[in-house]
Amino acid sequence: MFILCEIVSFTLIYRNNAYQQNIMLSSANAITGRLLHMSGAFFSYFDLQKVNHELLERNSQLEMEVLRLREQMNIKTIDTTTFSQVFLNDTVLRNYQYQTITASVISNSVRYSSNYITINKGENDGIRPDMGVISPKGLVGIVTTVNNVYSVVMSILHVKSRVSCKIRHSNFSGSLSWDGGDVRYAFLDQIATHAIFQIGDTIETSGYSDVFPAGIMVGTVESFNKKTDDNFYSLKVQLATDFQSLSALCVIVNLLQKEQKEIEREARRND
Description:
By secondary structure, this protein is of the alpha+beta class. The chain is built from 4 helices and 12 strands; from the N terminus they run αααββββββββββββα.
């Protein structure tokens, strides 16, 4: 009853006195305004989270776009002439039999006995297995596996890699291989003991395959030795390519590779 009487009293005071009515209205408005301000701040906090999330997504999209544009710029700025220095002369590049496809390295290993390199070009770009790969400085390896967008290259820093090479300005050739040791050196075996060469001479591809044309830079003679029971020299070759800092590569397309393989297979069948 007391509470009921209090409510009736306050109601009569509020209705019959303008001063008290204004005070209560002002107080109610202040309380309502504070509550609205607090609720607005509360909901705006969650709105800010949504806005921040949208901004982060947009920034990520813009960063990816920048990376794509940067990659396209790198591809455009890789001038084919950058790779001409690894050839014996520029006529190799101008030869109608060969074309080149530039690519970027996205994965590279040098720590293992079987090292591979992944590049950002594949079948969609015209790359096929058994294509040669070079860097701006020299020989790199041979394409082994390809899908639509990527290719895997067997580096010459692979214990099973074999590339026919020769001493520049001579017809003495051998097989270039790597022993799984120092990544700066490979070995050119089966060089005849009557071959004329000296320390510092250039080693280049021989052209005795359908993968590499003749004259691609490989490295220089560091040293040589001959086993007592062998009639051949083994040349230690300092590689021209720095495999620990590969970035831009060039894939060599032999337009007549298929025809060469076919006639060689036919010759073996008829043998």
